[in-house]
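Help needed: design a sequence for this.
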């Protein structure tokens, strides 16, 4: 098939090289060669070792911890590709940090999600590919095309295969309820919602009560990301008090800083924690309760479709 751009070229920064490797395996193309490191003065250096002139370049870099270093690495990588005369540059951000900062909800605060979008465009990205943005309106922060994929079909299939008896899907807060409703509809389950109050700017939340019935049913806690796990732990506690049986937790992005994965896994009410590899989950954070699903095939198929001018939306219309 003839494409509007040259040969496909895939590169990765240091944020998640394992995911980039699996994407390349799916596409049956080699991972591009590059040199990405920091000098002793903490300046980031990027050198693309392959010829990318007029090629269709995809740079894979979830903006994970250390977030600001990985964002800067992505920007410099994009600039390097632009100055090497790449035909088109797509920033592949499986996880988009600062998406929570999508509006001014307090006086004299920034909209950092918009700032990061501006930086990516200014660096030279022609389009963006991402997965499950925390706030969908972040797509509108870009003037270049944005393809937002979702891990929902993978999570749906996983829980369909478990064949839970009459489960209930529980949104961890009202903000995620729309996605949780879509998930519940796909597995033919009712929806309940945790009413939650967040305490200031601290990473603490107080779960208040449950909207919906959970008594006597296995519950699937649903969110787009798990950070410290505080929301999941508080939600699991109230679910147990309200009579839920087995409790599962699932999310696309597993941030899990420090000992969060072990703290979450130690909660007796939670039977299993299902996440994806949009963010690297090192072996040190893996516990018997944690199940990691890969999004490499989904991202690989999306890259194939973008490169060949095919519909990305059709990718999801073919899935359950």
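Sure. Designed sequence:
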């Amino acid at each position: 098939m003839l494409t509007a751009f040259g040969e496909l070229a895939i590169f990765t920064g240091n944020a998640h090289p394992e995911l980039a490797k699996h994407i390349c395996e799916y596409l049956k193309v080699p991972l591009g060669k590059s040199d990405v490191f920091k000098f002793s003065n903490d300046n980031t250096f990027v050198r693309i070792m392959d010829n990318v002139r007029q090629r269709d370049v995809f740079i894979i870099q979830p903006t994970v911890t250390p977030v600001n270093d990985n964002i800067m690495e992505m920007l410099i990588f994009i600039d390097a590709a632009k100055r090497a005369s790449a035909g088109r540059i797509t920033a592949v951000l499986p996880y988009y940090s600062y998406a929570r900062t999508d509006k001014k909800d307090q006086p004299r605060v920034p909209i950092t999600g918009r700032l990061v979008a501006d930086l990516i465009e200014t660096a030279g990205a022609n389009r963006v590919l991402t997965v499950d943005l925390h706030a969908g309106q972040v797509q509108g922060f870009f003037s270049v095309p944005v393809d937002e994929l979702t891990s929902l079909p993978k999570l749906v299939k996983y829980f369909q295969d478990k064949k839970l008896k009459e489960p209930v899907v529980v949104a961890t807060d009202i903000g995620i309820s729309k996605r949780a409703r879509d998930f519940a509809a796909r597995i033919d389950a009712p929806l309940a919602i945790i009413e939650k109050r967040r305490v200031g700017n601290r990473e603490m939340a107080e779960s208040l009560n449950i909207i919906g019935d959970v008594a006597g049913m296995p519950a699937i806690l649903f969110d787009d990301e798990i950070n410290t796990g505080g929301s999941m732990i508080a939600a699991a506690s109230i679910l147990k008090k309200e009579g839920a049986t087995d409790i599962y937790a699932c999310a696309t992005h597993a941030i899990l800083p420090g000992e969060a994965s072990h703290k979450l896994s130690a909660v007796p009410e939670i039977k299993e924690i299902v996440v994806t590899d949009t963010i690297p989950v090192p072996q040190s954070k893996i516990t018997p309760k944690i199940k990691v699903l890969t999004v490499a095939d989904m991202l690989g198929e999306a890259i194939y479709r973008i490169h060949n001018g095919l519909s990305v939306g059709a990718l999801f219309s073919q899935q359950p």
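The chain has two domains: 8-151+296-317, 152-293.
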